[in-house]
């Protein structure tokens, strides 16, 4: 099989959620290009519209977001099948002085929420469960208190929800994780001039008088989508594939580190910045792969790419004196 061509992955889903939310919290008009147009991102847009944000149709070309302040919804906030929508919106609502009820489809209603709701309760949010650890949930936010939190798991959703609660509630938040999880929220906060810093693996947010300003931003291409294109090129017999505009955030590119360890030829060129995120064009070529081990510490940086790595591992040769595929 020969591979050749130039491709561009869709916008990054994790970044798309967060950019929409921060744009809805800004006082004014923001414009976003390259947004992912999938169902989960549309769920976030729908919920934000229910909370008073004016958001144009979700397209990958340009999306306009205008907001003054969030308002109490007139109906339940339906998050579809998006856990990111539900958990991060809980953080935003923790700082709002009104009540709202979140629900979702049958699958989302079975997913755990206490990893987010418990620390939010500690901050002062009133949260009522209707069916145990899951949706539907009623939350009444308002006057919060600061939080110093050691998370039992490395979770970007938990971390992001708490940072958003600190932002909307105007209180300091400090978070320590066992391993570093995706840092899209921290990068976006930093890019927008909000009070975020990291020291010795501890993330700290300090509120200030600066509100979220409107912004224009281009969303980086989705790293997870690019991983499958890289895999096709690596398994080919000849040629090369250029994948444009790929997000190469170090908390998301663990699969590239593993592939390079296995002997793959993947180059990053035209490095640049997009909204605080590192972006590059990626060139992938065929390679003979050797088996390797993936450590627990690496998992948060490649959790979505485990399936494609498993496929590639099935084609790898046994490492001398070491792992088998």
Q: What spatial order of strands do you see in the largest sheet? A: 1-14-16-15
Mean pLDDT: 94
Strand residue content: 25-35%
What is the N-to-C order of secondary-structure elements (H for helix, E for strand)?
EHEHEEEHEHHEEEHEHEEEHEHEEH
Class based on secondary structure composition and strand pairing = alpha/beta
Question: What percent of the residues sit in helical stretches (DSSP H or I)?
Answer: 25-40%
Q: What distance separates the N and C termini?
A: 22 Å
User: What are the low-pLDDT stretches, counting only 5+ consecutive residues below 50?
Assistant: none
Number of strands: 16
Q: Helix tally?
A: 10
CA-based gyration radius: 20 Å
